[in-house]
Amino acid sequence: MRALSCKILGRVANSFQQINSVRSLSRTTPVMVKVGDALPSVDLFEDSPANKINTGDLVNGKKVIIFGVPGAFTPGCSKTHLPGYVNSAEELKSKQGIDEIVCVSVNDPFVMSAWGKEHGAGGKVRLLADPAGGFTKALDVTIDLPPLGGVRSKRYSLVVENGKVTELNVEPDGTGLSCSLANNIGKK
């Protein structure tokens, strides 16, 4: 009887090991987007939850700058990051052949819309909301900032040409204001 119990327990333990092996294989560790990668196709929102903008469609056949910020109306984003792109939009479009400039943040579309209006972004920079952080997670540029509500976006900029990332600038600490600024686009 004892030998039978040990045999059964051995089989059960082996089964659990196999299950855990399969589980660990099915878990994927996110890998940060890199130059040469296709931009993930994720729905973002412009102005309201009714206006979905798919990132794959947004960049198809175009040269687009996408920059991410930790939060709308936050000091660094409002004083430096967004205004830099708004003020440089015409030059980036004419001298570097940029078709569109897009700002993404883990916020709701109403907040992003109001923030864009406050900074005169209309016709210069599109402000797209990533309310659940799906795009931010797909790029693997999340950062946990509890004072801002938890999971947010690191500060970054990227250039996408016809769906492929051709330039990537992620702030080393995730929130600083250096390599992701508008004046650094095309400098690499």
Description:
The chain has 188 residues and is of the alpha/beta class. Helices cover 36% and strands 23% of the residues. The chain has 5 helices and 9 strands. The protein has helices at residues 2-26, 55-59, 75-96, 109-118, 134-139, and strands at 43-45, 52-54, 63-69, 100-105, 126-129, 142-145, 150-153, 156-161, 164-170. The strands form 3 sheets. The protein has a 5-stranded mixed sheet with strand order 5-4-3-8-9. Strands 1-2 form a two-stranded antiparallel ribbon. Strands 6-7 form a two-stranded antiparallel ribbon. The longest helix is centred in the N-terminal third of the chain and has 25 residues, at 2-26. The protein is globular, with a radius of gyration of 21 Å.
What would the keywords be for this entry?
188 residues; five-stranded mixed β-sheet; 5 helices; globular
Query: What percentage of the residues does DSSP assign to strands (E)?
Result: 15-25%
Number of helices: 5
Shape: globular
SSE ordering: HEEHEHEHEHEEEE
Radius of gyration computed on alpha carbons: 21 Å
Give the biggest sheet. Answer: 5 strands, mixed
Q: Give the N-terminus to C-terminus distance in angstroms.
A: 72 Å
The unreliable regions are 1-27
**Count the strands?**
9
